[in-house]
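> call design_seq(struct)
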């Protein structure tokens, strides 16, 4: 049986290593590899390499594919001294990443050389400039901006609503965005789905969105879930930890699924929907206000609920509703102002009117009521296709 030292030597013989001076030169050239910090949270808090992303060693294999879907991307892994990163480099190579190296001497040597590093507490000079118009607002300020950078928002759908919502949340500096979408970019999407472009036709929407968002703001990490949200995967995706869900789903099964999952996991949902010239937006805060089932106990019959694909939608409408969703999500994170909890906002673009309807929490609601009758995931497709339950 090998000792730790023998094992480490064996692993180091199988991987590539890179010196701090080489990495520094690359950073200064602007041709930077993805820097991946695999240390523990408390080590990360004390400082890390500029623009590095952080995945503790113990979560590396489970999270890396969502975080870095492109396996040909050049990655430099580092830890405190170069041992954990060597094992991590071996693991990534085994997962099919083909351009991975480990930083010799790790963060300790980097710091000892006097090279620049960032500390997560307190904004960097670049961040103070980038977010200066937020920092000027008393309701945000530097502490609020830090809170946004530490926050995590899950977007259901990278379509009409998810496009503006994800772009504004990213621009605002929400530090982690998760995006769930199984579709690829189609040319009929581009009339409204502004996170995608002609250049990304045919690409998975989550990857197209990830690329646009990361180009907009390198402070933002995007977790790409290239899958349709289902009863089978929802708990795994929610286990990655989210402060707010922005629901831009275009179908009823997903909306009911998101609702039930959010009530059971106690995560606020910013809901939006659009049809032709009309949009709706509201906030469902579990146990504080109503949920989606309090508002709509049963889905409409399919013939009365055409999707955008069937009914059409004015291209700018999701821009307006998705931006309102982003605004509500930011306020939920900041704890500022009054949200749309218990209020359904209706927008009519054709006549340019906003209306508001009060929505109450229903004590007989089957999911969030006093005596819930639905306590586990159901078959949502069947539920929404079935006879109308009134
Ligand atoms: Zn309810």
């Amino acid at each position: 049986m090998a000792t730790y030292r023998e094992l480490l030597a064996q692993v180091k013989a199988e991987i590539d290593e890179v010196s701090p001076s080489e990495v520094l030169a690359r950073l200064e050239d602007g041709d930077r590899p993805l820097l991946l910090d695999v240390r523990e949270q408390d080590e990360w808090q004390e400082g890390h390499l500029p623009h590095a992303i952080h995945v503790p060693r113990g979560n590396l294999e489970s999270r890396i594919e969502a975080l870095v879907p492109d396996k040909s991307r050049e990655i430099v892994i580092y830890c405190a001294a170069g041992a954990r990163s060597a094992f991590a480099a071996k693991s990534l190579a085994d997962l099919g990443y083909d351009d991975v190296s480990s930083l010799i001497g790790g963060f300790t040597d980097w710091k000892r050389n006097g090279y620049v590093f960032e500390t997560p507490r307190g904004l960097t000079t670049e961040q103070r400039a980038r977010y200066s118009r937020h920092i000027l607002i008393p309701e945000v300020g530097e502490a609020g901006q830090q809170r946004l950078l530490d926050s995590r928002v899950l977007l259901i759908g990278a379509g009409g609503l998810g496009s503006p919502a994800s772009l504004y949340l990213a621009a605002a500096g929400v530090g982690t965005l998760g995006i769930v979408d199984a579709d690829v970019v189609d040319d009929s999407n581009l009339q409204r789905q502004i996170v995608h472009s002609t250049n990304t036709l045919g690409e998975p929407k989550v990857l197209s969105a990830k690329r646009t968002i990361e180009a907009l703001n390198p402070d933002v990490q995007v977790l790409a879930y290239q899958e349709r949200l289902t009863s089978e995967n929802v708990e795994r995706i929610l286990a990655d930890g989210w402060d707010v869900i922005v629901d831009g789903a275009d179908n009823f099964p997903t909306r009911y699924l998101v609702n039930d999952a959010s009530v059971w996991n106690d995560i606020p949902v910013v809901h939006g929907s659009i049809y032709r010239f009309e949009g709706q937006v509201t906030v469902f805060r579990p146990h504080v206000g109503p949920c989606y089932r309090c508002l709509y106990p049963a889905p409409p019959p399919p013939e009365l609920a055409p999707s955008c694909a069937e009914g059409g939608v004015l291209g700018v409408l999701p821009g307006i509703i998705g931006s309102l969703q982003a605004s509500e999500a930011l306020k939920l994170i900041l704890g500022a102002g009054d949200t749309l909890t218990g209020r359904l906002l209706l927008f009519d673009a054709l006549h340019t009117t906003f209306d508001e309807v009060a929505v109450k929490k229903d004590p007989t609601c089957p999911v969030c009521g006093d005596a819930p009758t639905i306590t586990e995931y159901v078959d949502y497709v069947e539920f929404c296709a079935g006879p109308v339950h009134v």
